[in-house]
């Protein structure tokens, strides 16, 4: 049995760190700071962080097969060219809802980018309800709305056989499962997989591991939990030294390390003296399970 180690690997104070994904060939972690409108790329070996500022809050950033990234920022899907820092809009959503913005997103097994929206938060986890929707950006840059009536569209990932999409609307306090038609990208038959317990806070970002189990970051719950989708049961709890983990992904050598982004509490004046910084990025090793490499947008 290896022993689990949790460390604050990037001692920065991102307001809402989110959307982590590991780029194997660079050995870097891509993530965003939603509130500070930044896409960042961090090399844990050298400690170097590169970042690009965008003009709107950015909910998620994903890899693109042809190079660069796709971002879901403000109410737009856009390409981001890392070298010359140019952003090119591909499509707009929710044009009738000026207070909406994109939140979490991920590339599906076929290379489509699926991302959801929400009304801008009044304070953490408080929004005008039912304003969000879940959208798919296809490789030909067309956009389809999967469903609406979402409060805070958040974590998502797919089962290893691609037949199920796991999805979180944070304010339902649940992790849901939907049938996924991987040929078309259509979802159906949404049902609750796991209901969070009282002290587990809000479900936020999540990722699947190589055993088909889900790792869910619990915002205000100070933990990441592992769920078995077969049974709908929680099988592991990783207690963290911070209250607001936001999302997680596997990375590092052979995808054997879990990276967890977090959000910071602005009232904490003494953050610099703390070993564990709220808003920092955490690395968890010794879990004895590996993750899946992220997919890249095909268009
Ligand atoms: O990280 C995100 O996805 C949101 O934009 C956050 O603000 C939190 O998730 C939310 O407050 C709790 O669910
Ligand atoms: Zn989130």
UniProtKB/TrEMBL annotation:
The keyword Metal-binding applies. GO terms for biological process: L-ascorbic acid biosynthetic process. Coiled coil: none annotated. Its cofactor is Zn(2+); Ca(2+); Mg(2+); Mn(2+). A divalent metal cation binds at residues 18, 154, 204. Substrate binds at residues 101, 103, 121. The active site is at 204 (proton donor/acceptor). Its EC number is 3.1.1.17. The keyword Calcium applies. It is found in: Cytoplasm. Residues 16-263 form the SMP-30/Gluconolactonase/LRE-like region domain. Belongs to the SMP-30/CGR1 family. This is Regucalcin. It comes from Hymenochirus boettgeri.
């Amino acid at each position: 049995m290896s022993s689990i180690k949790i460390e604050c690997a990037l001692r920065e104070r991102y307001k809402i760190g989110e959307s982590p994904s590991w780029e194997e060939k660079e050995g870097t972690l891509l993530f965003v700071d939603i509130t500070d409108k930044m896409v960042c790329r961090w090399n844990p070996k050298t400690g170097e962080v590169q970042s690009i500022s965008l003009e709107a809050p950015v909910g998620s950033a994903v890899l693109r097969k042809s190079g660069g990234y796709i971002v879901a920022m403000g109410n737009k899907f856009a390409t981001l060219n890392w070298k010359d820092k140019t952003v090119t809009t591909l499509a707009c959503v929710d044009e009738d809802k000026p207070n909406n913005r994109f939140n979490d997103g991920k590339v599906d097994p076929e290379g489509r980018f699926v991302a959801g929206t929400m009304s801008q938060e009044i304070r953490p986890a408080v929004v005008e309800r039912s304003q969000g929707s879940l959208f798919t950006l296809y490789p030909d840059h067309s956009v389809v709305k999967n469903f609406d009536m979402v409060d805070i569209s958040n974590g998502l990932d797919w089962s290893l056989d691609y037949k199920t999409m796991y999805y979180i609307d944070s304010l339902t306090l649940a992790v849901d499962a939907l049938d996924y038609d991987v040929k078309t990208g259509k979802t159906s038959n949404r049902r609750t997989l796991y209901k969070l317990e009282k002290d587990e806070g809000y479900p936020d970002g999540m990722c699947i591991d190589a055993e088909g189990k889900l790792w869910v970051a619990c915002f205000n719950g100070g933990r990441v939990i592992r769920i078995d989708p077969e049974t709908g049961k929680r099988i592991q709890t990783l207690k963290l030294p911070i209250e607001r983990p936001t999302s997680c992904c596997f990375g590092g050598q052979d995808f054997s390390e879990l990276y967890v982004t977090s959000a910071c509490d602005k009232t904490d004046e003494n953050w610099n003296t703390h070993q564990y910084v709220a808003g920092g990025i955490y690395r968890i090793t010794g879990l004895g399970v590996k993750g899946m490499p992220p997919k890249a947008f095909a268009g």
